[in-house]
Structures are given as structure tokens and as C-alpha cells.
Amino acid sequence: MSIACALCDAPGGRVVLQAPHWRIVHAQEAGFPAFYRLVWQQHVREFSQLAPADRAECMETLVVMEQAMLRHLQPEKVNLAALGNAVPHLHWHVIGRYTWDSHFPGAVWAQPQRSEDPARLQALEARLPAFEQELLGALPQRP
Amino acid sequence: MSIACALCDAPGGRVVLQAPHWRIVHAQEAGFPAFYRLVWQQHVREFSQLAPADRAECMETLVVMEQAMLRHLQPEKVNLAALGNAVPHLHWHVIGRYTWDSHFPGAVWAQPQRSEDPARLQALEARLPAFEQELLGALPQRP
User: Fold this and answer.
1) ω before B75 within 30° of 0 (cis)?
2) Which stretches does DSSP call E strand in chain A?
3) Are B47 and A80 inside 8 Å of each other by CB?
4) Where is this motif: Histidine triad motif (chains A, B) (predicted)?
5) Domains of chain A: which residue ranges?
6) For the segment B13-69, what is each residue's pLDDT rounded down to a tens digit?
7) Fold of A6-136
């Protein structure tokens, strides 16, 4: 008997990279081009339920993502979050935030504070391939 | 010349524990009794800007907080988040969430989904001292 889980049954976004223990997906959330997720492959509910070596691997992968994001996408701030209330399968949101984005300085889950800026969103989207290319070069991949 | 920072100038909540590198505070956010913060003592903007040993210490402290919360407060889900858009001084939100809370399964920063439940909030508040006592026993403290 299996319980349906959105992150066991589907990638949860456009797959950028598959590693043995986790995958990185582009979240494709409208208004936030620099929104990625690090999804643990195995169904685990809470971060602290990972074995210590797995926690360290997860955290260091988040750090690689954040540092590459800071270099390539120059966000005002990076947001890291493992919530999982709706989908209790361990996944980290890694979101580059900008003073001009629709919700800044609120959380992306809060009410918008201004309209989207199509020109800036498009310019940011154009820089995602270089960011993703760095991730592909820096991180292990599933054979 | 110093730039004012809300987490350099004030604790950011009721202090539960001060360690050399970080402090744990109770966030005292209405409607969310199980809302704590792990605040890095030094002014650092992004998690990835910590030295590797400091990142590991920070992460393992989050794990102690999460595991103690699961044991003592039995949340439906723990939410971990380092946002810092408004106050870009590294701090992690550690929030125990419940199916009956005003925002579940939404983020605490989203719109409420139902009214607060005073009886359940009060019952949860009564269990915080045992949780905090475990943290004091499990974690290092500044002399």
C-alpha cells in the first residue's frame, strides 16, 4: 500500500540535475525565475530524519546552489526554506530574491507588494542557463 | 560607521539560550507558540558565507532543535527557513506547525486559512518549558 506523494510521483519542476541522493529542479513559479528546489530522492519527512552524512551532503549541496546563485544571478538575498506542509517529502526551496520582485521583502508565499516587472523577469531568465551550467559542472550526477 | 541591524542591536525574541556563535530565541509570534529562531551572533548575510565548520555547527544545532520539537511538541511538520529579506542577518526560523493552526498548510507568512484556536494555543504554550529545558541540557552555552 503506498500513499500518494507529489514528489515521489513527479520531479516537482523542470529537472536540472539528478544525483544519487537528490535532484535539483527549477520550480517554474511565475514571477520568480530564480526559484529552484533541492528534492531528496527518498521519501523522508523531516530534515533531521536524514542520517548525519546525508544531512551534511544535503547542506553542502544547498551551499553550492546558493554560492552559484550569488555569482551568476546576483540576488539581493537568497531564501532557503524546507516547509513541506502540503507535500511532506523533504525538499528545500532555494530562491533568489530581488528588491524589484513582486513580493520583496515579504516571503514569496506572502501577499504581493507590487506588480511583476516583465523586462526584469526576462533579463533574469536569460541568465539561468549559465547558473545551471555551473551546477552541472560542480555537482555529482547519477550515472 | 555602523549600519543599524535589528539582530545586532536586539535579541530578536525572548532569549532561551546564548552560545558563543549563536543564540536561540522564542519568536513570540502571535498564533504560533512553537516558533523559535536560531540567530547567528556575528553579522553574516547568507548561510553560505559561514565557514564550513560554522555551517556544520549551525545545521547540527537546527537538527537538535527540530528533534527536540518533534519529541516535546509533536508538530504535524517542522518548517525551517532562512529568509532575511527584511533583516539580512543570518537567522533560521524553526516553526512547529499543526493542522489546526491558523495558516496550515500555508506558510506562516501567507494569508490565514482559519481563526486561531485559543484552547489549543494555550495547551501548546504549556509544553514549551519542557522543550526549552531539553535544549538547555543538549546544547553548549556561553560562559
Assistant:
1) no
2) 14-18, 22-26, 35-40, 77-82, 91-97
3) yes
4) 89-93
5) 6-136
6) 999 999 999 999 999 999 999 999 999 999 999 999 999 999 999 999 999 999 999
7) HIT family, subunit A (3.30.428)
Inter-chain touch A77–B67, beta carbons under 8 Å = no
Q: Do B81 and A84 touch (CB under 8 A)?
A: no
User: Does A73 reach chain B within 8 Å, measured CB to CB?
Assistant: no
pLDDT tens by residue, A57-106: 999 999 999 999 999 999 999 999 999 999 999 999 999 999 999 999 99
Residue at grid coordinates 504581493 = A112
Question: C-alpha grid cell for residue A125?
Answer: 531568465
Specify the residue for cell string 543570518: B90
Disruptive mutation site among A59, A85, A114 for chain B (greatest number of B CBs within 10 Å) = A85
d(CA B93, CA B85): 13
Q: SS3 for A35?
A: strand
Sign of CA dihedral A37, A107, B21, B65: negative
How many residue contacts between A and B have a Cβ separation below 8 Å? 99
Nine-digit cell string for A2: 503506498
- The pLDDT of residue A123 is above 80: yes
Q: Quick check: B2 pLDDT over 90?
A: no
Task: Pick the residue from chain B with its C-alpha nearest to A112.
Answer: B110
A99 interfacial to chain B (CB closer than 8 Å): no
Residue of B nearest to A56 (CA): B56
